[in-house]
């Protein structure tokens, strides 16, 4: 079994690396709605059927094994280290990088086949472990469920929802309505509503640093007051942020707003809150040891 | 008004109390009440400085590196005391005292900026819970780090059960710190998680401690491996806390608050 495990882990990463070298980063925009929803549903259904019928089989036992936990955690750490050590560039800049690190996708590692494969295995393992653990009556069960289901939900929504995320910038001026926004790579995107700056106010520290600034903005038919840390929720999955402003001769020339579309954010938040509960329980109940298990 | 100029007049009595507590605990076989009281006194003196600085700055002192070191010393005093009170290890107070005093000395020699301004991104209800929870977890994990070094050096397994208690507490607080940070990041920048270098190193640290917890549950790893994982995770924690500031990959990080804003 040990040898088979090693072969699987090495092979899994090798295939991902080969794919990366051969075709470049994962075209993750392809997985935008409804493809992501479909893939996620199929994947979960297949896992569930597989688990139901073959839970005693070698493959499922392996997917549920402690060595899988350790492998997914350690390879996740290794993947994060690549992200933490290599400067992460835009897709175009990263694609232009040559050499070993460039062809392995290290400069845009979040969407590289290697990191996506690691996350996928981690999600698969976590889904199975959570499902099994949820139906086992034992001590620390609810802590286990909160931590594992919470982390799974947050990761799942981040993973499958990323293709639906949109991050736009739009400069807004006083008395001039606009719906012309720009994506992060500079493409023009027209919003289906208009934005207009109604008023702006800022005050400063003695060293010239802004202490506080806020803008009143018309968004479609609504009037929104925007501040840093206080975005305005325009509609389901879409928020408007005040990110900056430009001053000319003491007058505010324009404000820069950020439009964030993240339809999966509610699932992510649910996962985060559940993991928060798990974190508190981790402190309250303390370590798992034999004495406690015998109680 | 208490300012950084008065810092040394709080550090001296606090350090004397901590040191006296550490010496008393080293010389007593059982758990010493005097050592606990002395450590508590030192921490109280220290907390007076934090409170005074908070009032005179008109904002919580949590922004600059120097200010987070202040909290680290403070929590080091507290978690050293709690560890001693709970398990009675004689040497733990000496370690926590040394670390707390070293951080005070760094603050005296290299105060960094302590100005009054607080940039708008940091003006949030999440600011205080996020940073203090993190600083507390760092100090608890710091105790676990010292314990692992001793365990590794002495080739002894017995420190692991105590390390477990510290790691569960430290990881719990690390989790809460990280997730409150995620919720805050959504309000401030639009994303719960954006793989910024500081966030990435926080994830590495977290996953490192999770690996330890899972290996311990599995029960098949050698103590040496486990101690090394704890030591390694604490090193990645240093990377997350201040190491990223020096990392070329992180010069665009949104989490660098020591720069002066230009607009």
In short:
The complex is a heterodimer of chains A (295) and B (263). With 295 residues, chain A is α+β, with helices and mostly antiparallel strands.
Poorly predicted spans of chain A: none
Alpha-beta content class of chain A: alpha+beta
Distance between the termini of chain A: 35 Å
Task: Give the overall average pLDDT of chain A.
Answer: 92
Radius of gyration of chain B: 19 Å
Q: Assign an overall shape of chain A.
A: globular
Helical fraction of chain B:
over 70%
Strand order of the largest sheet of chain A: 5-4-3-2-1-8-7-6
Low-confidence stretches of chain B: none
| Proportion of residues in extended strands of chain A | 15-25%
Total count of strands of chain B? 0
Computed structural class of chain B: mainly alpha
Helix residue percentage of chain A: 40-55%
Q: Would you give an account of this structure?
A:
The complex is a heterodimer of chains A (295) and B (263). Chain A has 295 residues and is α+β, with helices and mostly antiparallel strands. Helices cover 50% and strands 24% of the residues of chain A. An eight-stranded antiparallel β-sheet of chain A has the order 5-4-3-2-1-8-7-6, with no helix packed on it. Chain B has 263 residues and is mainly α. Chain B is 71% helix and 0% strand. Chain B has helices at 7-27, 33-57, 65-87, 92-109, 127-154, 159-189, 197-218, 223-241. Chain B is flat and about 50 Å long. The two termini of chain B are 30 Å apart. Chains A and B meet through helix 4, strand 4, strand 7 and helix 9 of A and helix 6 and helix 7 of B.
């Amino acid at each position: 079994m040990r040898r088979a495990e090693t072969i699987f882990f090495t092979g899994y990463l090798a295939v991902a690396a080969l794919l990366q070298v051969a075709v470049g980063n994962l075209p993750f925009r392809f997985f935008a709605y409804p493809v992501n929803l479909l893939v996620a549903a199929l994947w979960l259904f297949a896992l569930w059927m597989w688990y139901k019928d073959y839970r005693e089989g070698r493959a499922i036992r392996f997917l549920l094994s402690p060595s899988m936990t350790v492998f997914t955690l350690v390879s996740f750490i290794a993947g994060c280290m690549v992200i933490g050590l290599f400067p992460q560039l835009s897709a175009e800049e990263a694609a232009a990088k040559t050499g070993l690190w460039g062809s392995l996708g290290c400069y845009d590692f979040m969407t590289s086949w290697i990191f996506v494969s690691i996350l996928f295995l981690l999600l698969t393992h976590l889904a199975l472990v959570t499902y099994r653990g949820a139906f086992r009556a034992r001590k620390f069960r609810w802590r286990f469920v909160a931590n594992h289901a919470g982390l799974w939900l947050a990761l799942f929504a981040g993973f499958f929802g990323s293709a639906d995320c949109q991050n736009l910038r739009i400069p807004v001026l006083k008395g001039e309505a606009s719906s012309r926004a720009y994506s992060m790579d500079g493409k023009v995107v027209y919003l289906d509503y208009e934005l207009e700056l109604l008023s702006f106010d800022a005050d400063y520290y003695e060293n010239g640093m802004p202490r506080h600034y806020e803008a009143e903005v018309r968004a479609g038919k609504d009037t929104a007051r925007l501040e840093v840390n206080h975005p305005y929720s325009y509609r389901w999955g879409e928020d408007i942020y005040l990110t900056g402003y430009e001053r000319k001769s003491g007058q505010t020339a324009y404000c820069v707003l950020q439009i964030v579309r993240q339809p999966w954010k509610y699932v992510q938040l649910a996962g985060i809150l559940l993991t928060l509960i798990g974190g508190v329980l981790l402190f309250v109940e303390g370590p798992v040891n034999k004495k406690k298990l015998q109680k | 008004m208490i300012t950084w100029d008065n810092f040394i007049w709080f550090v001296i009595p606090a350090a004397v109390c901590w040191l006296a507590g550490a010496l008393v605990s080293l010389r007593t076989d059982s758990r010493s009440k005097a050592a606990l009281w002395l450590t508590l006194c030192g921490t109280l003196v220290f907390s007076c400085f934090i409170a005074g600085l908070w009032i005179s700055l008109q904002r919580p002192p949590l922004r600059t590196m120097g200010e987070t070191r202040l909290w680290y010393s403070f929590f080091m005093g507290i978690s050293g005391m709690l560890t001693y009170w709970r398990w009675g290890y004689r040497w733990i107070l000496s370690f926590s005292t040394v670390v707390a005093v070293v951080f005070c000395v760094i603050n005296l020699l290299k105060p960094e900026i302590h100005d009054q301004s607080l940039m708008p991104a940091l003006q949030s209800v999440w600011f205080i819970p996020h940073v203090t929870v993190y600083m507390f977890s760092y100090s608890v994990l710091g105790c676990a780090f010292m314990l692992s070094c001793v365990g590794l050096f002495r080739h002894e397994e017995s420190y692991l059960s105590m390390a477990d208690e510290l790691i569960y507490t430290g990881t719990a607080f690390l989790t809460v710190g990280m997730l409150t940070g995620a919720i805050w990041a959504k309000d401030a920048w639009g994303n719960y998680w954006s793989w910024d270098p500081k966030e990435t190193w926080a994830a590495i640290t977290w996953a490192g401690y999770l690996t330890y917890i899972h290996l311990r549950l599995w029960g098949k790893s050698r103590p040496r491996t486990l101690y090394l994982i704890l030591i390694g995770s604490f090193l990645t924690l240093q990377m997350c806390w201040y190491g990223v500031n020096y990392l070329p990959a992180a010069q665009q990080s949104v989490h660098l608050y020591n720069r002066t804003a230009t607009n």
